Each structure stands twice: as C-alpha cells, then as structure tokens.
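Lab notebook, design round three. We kept the backbone fixed and only want residue identities now. Task for the bench partner: fill in a sequence for the structure below.
Input structure tokens:
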C-alpha cells in the first residue's frame, strides 16, 4: 500500500477550471464552509489509486480509489468516481459511488446520483432524492 501526504497543491490529473462548478447546493453559500477551502489535489477520470491518502484542504476525486482517505478538509466525489475506502474527513460531498465507512466531523451531503454502501457517522446529513443508500447512519452532536 502507498501513502500520500499532501500539503502543497498537487495534481494527479488535469483538473477542471473550477473544481466546485458541478457541485450544486450550499457549498458556495458560506454557511457550511463548503467551497471555502483550496483544492489541494485532484484525481481525475481514468486515474486509479490504491493506498492511503492523507491531506489537508479539499480534494476532488473523479477516478478510482481503493484504500483509505484521511483529511480535516472536504472530500468532493465526482459522478464518475468509484471509491472503496475507509474515509475520515471534515465534510464529504458525493455524486459518485462509495463503498466503505465514512466518518465526517462536520457533515455529509449525498447528491442525487450518489450510490453509498457502508456506514455514515456525522453530526449533519443531507440525502437528495435519487440517492441509493445501503448501510447504517449514526448522528451525534
């Protein structure tokens, strides 16, 4: 297994101009903090990564990830992303497929195209109509 620690901006594929553009919702409203962090890494479509990713700030994944992902920042999961991992993050916004357990210290937002198999542990949860969810939810303040 590989381990990657990211502190300075890293690009693992060519990112779109605005990494939050296709993530509708409250990320730009300022009330939740979504969209206020700098994107420090991008794993694009066609990129596959196996291992552990540890980072500070926001990361967007549109490719495939297998392993673990740890951050205090925001994880953005694109519509084409396929993640099989244990995830701990400040916040998670997902449009893609996640298999595994997520612990989010702030909140989890599952958008309509999301597919989630696993457990969620977060103080705030939002699930749009159309999400496929199989698992358990634990919410504590």
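Proposed sequence:
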């Amino acid at each position: 297994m590989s381990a990657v620690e990211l502190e300075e901006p890293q690009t693992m594929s060519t990112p779109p101009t605005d990494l939050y553009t296709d993530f509708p919702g409250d990320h730009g409203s300022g009330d939740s903090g979504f969209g206020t962090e700098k994107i420090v890494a991008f794993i694009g479509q066609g990129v596959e990564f196996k291992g552990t990713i540890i980072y500070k700030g926001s990361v967007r994944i549109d490719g495939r990830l297998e392993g673990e992902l740890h951050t205090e920042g925001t994880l953005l999961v694109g519509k084409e992303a396929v993640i099989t991992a244990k995830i701990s993050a400040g916040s998670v916004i997902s449009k893609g497929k996640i298999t595994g357990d997520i612990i989010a210290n702030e909140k989890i937002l599952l958008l309509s195209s999301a597919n989630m198999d696993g457990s969620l542990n977060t103080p705030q949860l939002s699930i749009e109509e159309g999400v496929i969810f199989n698992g358990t939810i634990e919410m504590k303040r």
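Keep this in mind before ordering anything: The chain has one domain: 2-138.
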